[in-house]
Design brief:
The structure is a single chain. This protein has helices spanning 3-21, 51-58, 73-82, 106-112, 161-171, 195-198, 217-246, 274-277, 305-312, 331-336, 403-415, 419-425, 451-468, 478-482, 493-498, and strands spanning 26-32, 61-63, 66-67, 97-99, 116-121, 127-129, 142-143, 178-183, 253-259, 278-279, 281-284, 294-296, 300-301, 348-353, 368-373, 376-381, 431-435. It is α/β, with parallel strands linked by helices. Strands 7-5-8-1-9-11-2-12 form an 8-stranded mixed beta sheet, with helices on both faces. Strands 14-15-16-17 form a 4-stranded antiparallel beta sheet, covered by helices on one side. The protein is globular. The N and C termini lie far apart (93 Å).
Length: 519
């Protein structure tokens, strides 16, 4: 070969290698549906076995203080997709909303910058997403849901998550970066009752029943059925990690594993207590995480995901389309190499909710704003005269049907009153304060004893919310509740049901409904 040709060949080889090194990072975002904080082996939980989540944490980061702003499927996922707290998204502050067409989502930006965006399972739901012209707007990219398999319990989806991800990898172009959203349907209800015991678990496996539920075989069995569904997700995660590893892509991919809100049980999913908003999270990215194996105690908000994904992709937050983010990229934590808290500014997070499910007069919500800071959780219930889990006579619609719910409701009916019913479904005061170190279940309200702490937290919370643009912080909170539900056939549910119209909400059972209003 002539020298000039040899130099040209070498130059082409070096250029090819340089191009390969500069290829943007692939991202795998794994999100379970209703998986609560602490329910993984990596957190020391003995009754939920998650070796593959544990692997991601061991080879990356385990987050100890990851929080969704709102503990309900749709607003939680809206925060992820937009990089904004739900109360900054108009109608999307609500569950089962009509998503505002003016709000772009981060996958749109990634696609414009050359990324292949695809998904399997649940991305954004329930709700309706339309373009400004009224046509359907896709939130989920290219779909990979064709592969099915028989799950170990009848309550689980038949989706073969690992096989569908394999199909995606087979069709991916080697020179195109990708973002894949893997949305498990589990451990969302309903469950096959008794499946945990049927497949080898024991009631004694559960080391802690929350203090807001009775401790008995019904509740423990329900928890084991939930655990089985979490473990089903983890098995698929393991197959996916193996697939990436065999292809040599595992170490080239940022992997984040988390959930959208806490477990689907009374006083958890849909509420704003610690077990509702505080979620499991681990991240693995050898190319970008310094000193893997760390446990991160910085407070993380789900509004932080979108700016993280764009920064990792090398994409600047756009001036138009995506509204300014209220989150911050997690790359400072990735790069810090520090165990515990690495950023002093990450010492708190804001939480809250607007309308979750229908079931109150006028389709009203149960608005809350809160702040979790250095082990204290302050909640301000903005309308304490309303029922927090929706009205009893319409089935407590903000709590999914379950053996646990049925047991607690029946206990109150049998005895006339019940402390667990009061904790899960009763009226709440305007202010609540909890010491999370001493009272992780949030059953002892310290609001009347800690005026100084409340004053400081309340001042900080409302100042930050006002600066963000929260309508409730400037006296316009009713605007959130004026937005109709996307389930148009169930709007005005309370009034129609009380007039005798037979409406089936779909997620509660007949025995959940009280025969008459409670006082």
């Amino acid at each position: 070969m002539r020298p000039v040709h040899l130099l040209a060949a070498l130059w082409a080889t070096f250029a090819s290698l340089a191009g390969a090194e500069q290829k943007p990072t692939n991202v795998l975002f794994v999100i379970a549906d209703d998986w609560g904080h602490g329910h993984a082996s990596a957190y020391g939980c003995p009754w939920v076995k998650t070796p593959n989540f544990d692997r991601v944490a061991k080879e990356g980061l385990l987050f100890l203080n990851a929080y969704t702003p709102t503990a309900k499927c749709t607003p939680s996922r809206s925060a992820i997709l937009t990089g904004r707290h739900p109360w900054l998204l108009g109608a999307a502050a609500n569950h089962q909303c009509v998503f505002p067409p003016e709000h772009e989502i981060f996958p749109d930006v990634l696609e414009r910058n050359g990324y292949n965006y695809a998904s399997c399972g649940k991305v954004w739901a329930p709700g309706l997403s339309l373009k400004a012209d009224g046509s359907k707007r896709r939130m989920d990219g290219k779909l990979f849901n064709r592969r099915l398999a028989t799950p170990p319990a009848t309550g689980m989806a038949k989706t073969d998550y690992a096989a569908n991800f394999h199909d995606f990898l087979e069709q991916s172009k080697p020179d195109q970066p990708w973002f894949f959203w893997l949305g498990f349907h589990e451990p969302h209800r309903e469950y096959e009752q008794g499946s945990g015991l049927r497949l080898g678990k024991k009631l004694s496996d559960v080391d802690h029943v929350p203090a807001y539920w009775p401790d008995n075989a019904v509740i423990r069995g329900d928890m084991l059925d939930y655990a089985l569904e979490v473990e089903h997700c983890d098995r698929h995660l393991g197959l996916i990690l193996d697939d990436l590893e065999k292809r040599g892509e595992l170490d080239r991919t940022l992997i984040i594993v988390t959930s959208d809100n806490g477990m689907p049980f009374p006083r958890v999913k849909g509420s704003t207590y610690e077990d509702a908003n505080h979620l499991p999270m681990a991240a693995r990215w050898p190319a970008g995480i310094k000193n893997p194996g760390r446990k991160v105690s910085d407070y993380i908000s789900f509004a932080d995901f979108a700016p993280t994904f764009l920064e990792v992709a090398g994409v600047k937050w756009p001036d138009r389309g995506l509204a300014p983010t209220s989150g911050r990229s997690l790359t400072d934590i990735f790069r810090s190499g520090i165990d515990g808290r690495s950023n002093p500014a990450r010492d708190h997070t804001l939480i809250g909710r607007e309308r979750n499910d229908l079931g109150r007069p006028g389709d009203l919500g149960y608005p809350i704003r809160g702040i979790v800071k250095d082990g204290l959780a302050y909640l301000e219930n903005c309308e304490p005269s309303r029922w927090p889990a929706c009205n009893p006579e319409t089935g407590y619609l903000d709590t999914d049907a379950s053996p646990t719910k049925t047991f607690i409701l029946q206990a109150r009916r049998d005895k006339g009153s019940d402390p667990f019913w009061s904790l899960c479904f009763g009226m709440r005061p305007g202010q609540e304060l909890f010491d999370l170190a001493a009272d992780r279940d949030c059953v002892t309200n310290l609001a009347t004893k800690c005026a100084t702490e409340i004053a400081a937290l309340r001042t900080q919370m409302w100042a930050e919310l006002k600066a963000q643009g929260d309508l409730r912080a400037i006296g316009r909170g009713a605007e959130y509740e004026a937005h109709p539900s996307a389930d148009f056939k169930k709007n005005h549910f309370y009034e129609r049901y009380m007039r005798g119209e037979l409406l089936d909400a779909g997620w509660v059972i007949k025995s959940d409904y009280e025969k008459e209003p409670l006082k």
